[in-house]
TrEMBL record:
Gene Ontology MF, one: protein-N(PI)-phosphohistidine-sugar phosphotransferase activity
UniProt entry keywords in alphabetical sequence: Cell membrane, Kinase, Membrane, Phosphotransferase system, Sugar transport, Transferase, Transmembrane, Transmembrane helix, Transport
Residue span(s) of domain PTS EIIB type-1: 439-519
Lineage, highest ranks first: Bacteria, Bacillati, Bacillota, Clostridia, Eubacteriales
Signal peptide residues on this chain, from the entry's feature table: none
Main location: membrane
Any one cellular-component term (Gene Ontology): plasma membrane
Protein name from the UniProt record: PTS transporter subunit EIIC
Presence of keyword Transcription: no
Tagged with keyword Acyltransferase: no
PTS EIIC type-1 domain mapped to chain residues: 4-425
InterPro entries: Glu_permease_IIB, PTrfase_EIIB_Cys, PTS_EIIC, PTS_EIIC_1, PTS_Glucose_EIICBA, PTS_IIB_1
PROSITE patterns on file: PTS_EIIB_TYPE_1, PTS_EIIB_TYPE_1_CYS, PTS_EIIC_TYPE_1
Location relative to the cell: Cell membrane
Protein's organism: Candidatus Gemmiger excrementavium
Length: 519
């Protein structure tokens, strides 16, 4: 396996992991609303909320949200298997469920017989997983199962067995090999995972002691790795493993910042903890909801007068997802490629946002997995004031960051004559497309990729259309992508190209697959 191939696969894993993560917003909102309206203080303030059926309704909302939170590992297993399966993705999904259950059953039987696991008295790092007493491998157990299942599936889904066993050929063979492979994985994990848990726990304690400095490093590095598509690997371990903390809430042990924060939301007594909140991206609330609009206003005001109307539409479309969903890439890519120094400054400001939200104890998460900055501020901030959300600081710090971004971006753009949207030279104006993806745009994209025969695979993440091609020399230039299709930027990788379209990337992917007749 070459280094470039490994880098490409890491990028793909980051994209695949976003599918289950994007299920979390609705879960977080349901738990947040259900918890907010069942607290004693809220009931005292609005006596009607104490009605038995009203309480039942809000408890049902919490239960609905926890359906996702409680079964994240198997959701990740299914998502990864589907994401990496080349064909017959439905079979891969089924096999991931079989594999996940097999891994945990094997660990249960082995550890029980070795006297390590006692269902009646489970130790730290052990829990009930899908009704099976096992090691708590969390979402990483699911990811490993998904990767193994996908590898086995891609290797054997079209296998041709001897005639006497022909009935088990093809996709029918995959569940059988999955059962064996994931059982073997369970044997390995029974001995390997406990030391990994201990190492993560130790690292978590070290990071806990870093305090404010650790928050700065976390926030800065998460932004800095965005252009490489590797930022997912900064926050995911903190989200879902004990690297992001361990805490017992209402008698149950939770590991990972997302799991702990959601447990705090659902608990009537637990208070928020800044050492957990910083790892669910509390700093992102500030720079996404206030900093990005400040940067957008600076780019609008520095645009050429005759292009301001056009640029206004572009920037509004980029700011809306930043504020409401926490997806900042559309506006970041508006300046990343034309003004890299601005992006470096932006990454530094992100670290500063994490520092200040740590100092002022802002316990409000900012990523899409909690509904995005705006909704999170309402449901996890204002409505959770009794838990110590300290939401008022969001607006105080937000005002400061709006001005900080605005004046910094305005000064830098004018000082260095950066070609941000609306300041391009004559003939380089980006042709902005409307919300509807038209056939003309698709035709230009196909032609720009070297024609249908040059396209091997089409995929997408939140903001990038990811295409593998046979011959990269046939792909049109970065400027042509921006000018002819409205792309925010282009990233060239070892086996193809990634074109940044913002939230329309997935729409382009689906339409291209239909046009090209891909599965």
């Amino acid at each position: 396996m070459t280094k470039k191939f490994t880098f490409s696969q890491f990028q793909k894993l980051g994209k695949v992991l976003m599918t289950p993560v994007m299920i979390l917003p609705i879960a977080g909102i349901l738990v947040g609303v259900g918890s907010a309206f069942t607290t004693a203080n809220m009931v005292n303030l609005f006596p009607l909320l104490g009605n038995q059926y009203v309480q039942l309704f809000f408890n049902l909302l919490k239960a609905m949200g926890n359906t996702i939170n409680n079964y994240l590992p198997i959701i990740f297993a299914v998502s990864v298997a589907i994401g990496y399966a080349e064909k017959e993705k439905g079979i891969a999904a089924l096999c991931s469920v079989i594999g996940f259950l097999a891994m945990n059953n094997v660990m249960n039987i082995l550890l029980t017989n070795l006297g390590v696991l006692d269902t009646a008295n489970m130790k730290t790092g052990q829990s009930m997983v899908m009704g099976i007493a096992s090691l708590d491998t969390g979402v990483f157990g699911g990811i490993l199962v998904g990767l193994l299942v996908a590898a086995l599936h891609n290797r054997f889904y079209n296998i041709q067995l001897p005639p006497i066993l022909g009935i088990f050929s093809g996709t029918k063979f995959v569940p059988m090999i999955t059962l064996l492979g994931c059982s073997a994985l369970g044997l390995v994990m029974a001995f390997v995972w406990p030391p990994v848990q201990n190492a993560l726990g130790f690292m978590g304690e070290v990071i806990y002691e870093t305090g404010a400095a650790g928050s700065v490093i976390y926030g800065l590095s998460e932004r800095a790795l965005l252009p490489f598509g590797l930022h997912h690997f900064i926050y995911t371990p903190f989200f879902f493993t004990n690297l992001g903390g361990s805490m017992t809430i209402d008698g149950k042990l939770y590991e990972g910042a997302v799991n702990i924060y959601n447990a705090m939301l659902a608990s009537p007594d637990a208070m928020f903890d800044i050492n957990i909140s910083r790892f669910v991206m509390n700093g992102k609330v500030i720079f996404a909801m206030f900093g990005m609009p400040g940067a957008a206003l600076a780019m609008y005001q520095t645009a050429k007068p005759e292009r301001k109307k056009q640029v206004k539409a572009l920037l509004i479309a980029a700011v809306i997802p930043a504020v409401f969903t926490g997806i900042t890439e559309p506006i970041e890519y508006a300046f990343l490629f034309v003004a890299p120094l601005l992006f470096v400054i932006h990454a530094g400001f992100a670290g500063l946002a994490y520092l200040l939200t740590y100092i002022f104890q802002v316990n409000v998460p900012g990523p899409s997995s909690f509904g995005g900055p705006f909704l999170s501020t309402i449901f996890n901030g204002i409505m959770q004031a009794d838990k110590g959300s300290h939401w008022i600081w969001i607006f105080i710090l937000g005002a400061v960051f709006f001005l900080l971004y605005y004046f910094t971006f305005r000064f830098m753009i004018l000082k260095f004559n950066y070609k941000t949207p609306g300041r391009e030279d004559e003939g380089e104006t980006v042709q902005l497309k409307g919300k509807k993806v038209d056939d003309e745009t698709l035709a230009v994209i196909v032609e720009g990729l070297g024609g249908a025969d040059n396209i091997l695979n089409v995929d997408a993440c939140f903001t990038r259309l990811r295409v593998k091609v046979k011959d990269k020399s046939l792909v049109m230039s970065d400027d042509e992508w921006k000018k002819n299709t409205g792309a925010n930027g282009v990233v060239r990788v070892s086996d193809g190209v990634q074109i940044v379209y913002g939230t329309k990337a997935d729409i382009y992917k689906n339409n291209l697959k239909n046009v090209l007749g891909m599965e």
